[in-house]
Specification:
The chain is built from 10 helices and 4 strands. The chain is mainly α. A 4-stranded mixed beta sheet has the order 1-2-4-3, sandwiched between helices. The radius of gyration is 23 Å and the shape is elongated.
């Protein structure tokens, strides 16, 4: 959050420096305004991020379950909340046929869990428990607080970048003042750096979100295995999710890092290495499934040994 505020301060004060060199004004109005806006936006994103994420996906809350799938979902969430030792989250269903799930909120006290209609259709009860246990792992570890705020900040940067792009396309040039001849090369260099900052801003914020998400997925998988005592169930659910042919159209790139599986189906997600660690929201599904199966087989072996 501090980095987000400092970045907007650079964008504002950088423009002020350019205008000061051109002799337009001396007081850094734009820097003060953008820094203040960034501080207020961080506060606003933290408070309203969960509602914005749910609204953006078109999710509807399950208050009075109407179908067998919704009733099973409510029952499973209640069971897994007890196993995880947290309050029962509010439950949402996303009207999308691709199987996926995500959690949002500020922590265990006000968490939300959302699953897609497609997930309810393909998962049996044990597999659904595994998926819900994974999301409750994010809730219990307070991953949802950071990841939801990052989603809101990514959206803010995209919005401001698009607005600045329209301004530049509409022709908002720096006026040539008395100092422009002497400071021409400096102005040009600063202007290029300032414009590049606007261009890469969404990329930088999304890479931050990706890095946070990728590292936390393995831990959430392990916590699901701890809550359910059945890691093979989550492995089976992930195999079904991975086998789905379509991307999750209701979930956009700004919130992709919240999901149990990459909703956009990007190829980097299935790879390892520095490039994949930088550009992918999730670790390779094959690696996650392999680790879960290893836990399950070790558990079965131990139980068999105890029985003997």
């Amino acid at each position: 959050m501090i980095g987000f505020v400092l970045f907007f301060a650079w964008l504002g004060f950088g423009a002020d420096v350019l205008w000061a060199i051109e002799g337009e004004h001396a007081f850094p109005w734009l820097g003060v305004i953008l820094t203040t806006v960034a501080i207020l936006w961080v506060r606003h994103a933290y408070k309203t991020g969960p509602e914005k994420v749910l609204w953006a996906t078109g999710a509807h809350e399950v208050i009075d379950a109407q179908t067998d799938g919704e009733r099973q979902l409510v029952n499973v969430v209640e069971e897994m909340a007890i196993a995880a030792g947290v309050l029962r989250p509010r439950i949402w269903v996303v009207p999308d046929d691709d199987p996926n799930a995500f959690s949002t909120g500020h922590g265990p006290s006000d968490a939300h869990i959302a699953v897609t209609r497609g997930l309810l259709r393909i998962c049996n009860r044990d597999e659904l428990q595994g998926v819900i246990g994974h999301e409750l792992g994010h809730v219990r570890n307070f991953d949802v607080r950071l990841m939801t705020t990052l989603a809101a900040l990514v959206g803010a940067v995209l919005l401001v970048r698009d607005g600045m792009g329209r301004m530049m396309r509409g022709g908002v040039p720096l006026k040539g003042g008395r100092k422009s001849k002497d400071g021409g090369p400096l102005i040009a260099a600063l202007l290029v750096l300032w414009i590049l900052s606007w261009i890469i801003a969404p990329v930088v914020t999304q890479l931050l979100a990706f890095a946070v998400s990728r590292r936390r997925e393995y831990l959430a998988d392990a916590m699901s295995a701890q809550f359910t005592r059945n890691p093979l169930a989550l492995a089976s659910a992930l195999e079904k999710i991975e086998g789905a042919a379509e991307p999750t159209r209701s979930i956009k790139r700004g919130t992709a890092h919240l999901c149990i599986a990459d909703p956009l189906g990007r190829r980097f997600t299935n790879r390892e290495g520095l490039l994949a660690d930088t550009l992918a929201t999730h670790p390779p599904m094959s690696m996650r499934i392999s680790r879960l199966k290893g836990m399950g087989y070790a558990q079965l072996k131990q139980e068999g040994g105890l029985a003997v």
